[in-house]
Amino acid sequence: MPYAILRTAKLKTAGNLTSLNEHLQRLRPTPNADAELTPLNVQLVGSPDLAADVQARLDAVGCTVRSNAVLAVEHLMTFSPEFLDIRKEPGQSGKPAQLVGSPEDGAKLAGFRDRAMEWLSERYGKENVVNAVLHLDEQTPHIHATVVPIDQAGKLNCRAMLGDRQKMRAMQTSFAAQLAPLGLQRGVEGSQAQHQEVKRFYGLVKELNPQLEQEAQRQVAQQRIRQAGQQHSRGGGIGM
């Protein structure tokens, strides 16, 4: 059974917000994104200006921002790759590229989007979820959602949102339960598995041996060719 995946990251500075926004809006090179599929990305909440969305929420509440405060918390929500069986269909005759899959795959992706966003709103308050983008141009669809941690007293309070390790584990359980009707399950509780950033992975490869980088790229290309050969043609675009 595929897994529900949730990762959080604290955004403490204006620079953090700018850097994330550049990734969200593809304002800087993203090696693992397919530029032909980038037009399929969807702004679910907020605007293409993340910093402005965060500031608007802070202004609306009128809270004092301490120098060491966490301005917002990014939530990366996705699933293990086997959850969907979709593929890219290249553009032809002036038509743009699209993602295609079965009607069931389309329904599952829409269900993930709706249930994940519902979970955020119920947990933090819809007004605090100031920005969310669905990325469809990378290998596995995922949502980047930004939440301003305003507590019931109207103050920035990241500690109340994320809490300690026990509360973080409970958050993972809650998120997985929300997506369970789609056939997604929680990962093993207490697992020490780590996810390396893509840029860190490439950095390690280059440090070891430049030839290894070429070999890694060659193997990835061959794997994609094999996968393409194994996939069956299916009609219908995966639209969001």
UniProtKB/TrEMBL annotation:
Stored NCBIfam families: MobV
Molecular-function GO terms, alphabetical: DNA binding
Gene Ontology BP, a term: DNA recombination
Biased composition (Low complexity): 220-231
Stretch forming the signal peptide: none
Annotated segments matching region Disordered: 220-240
Superkingdom to which the source organism belongs: Bacteria
The name this protein goes by in its record: Plasmid recombination enzyme
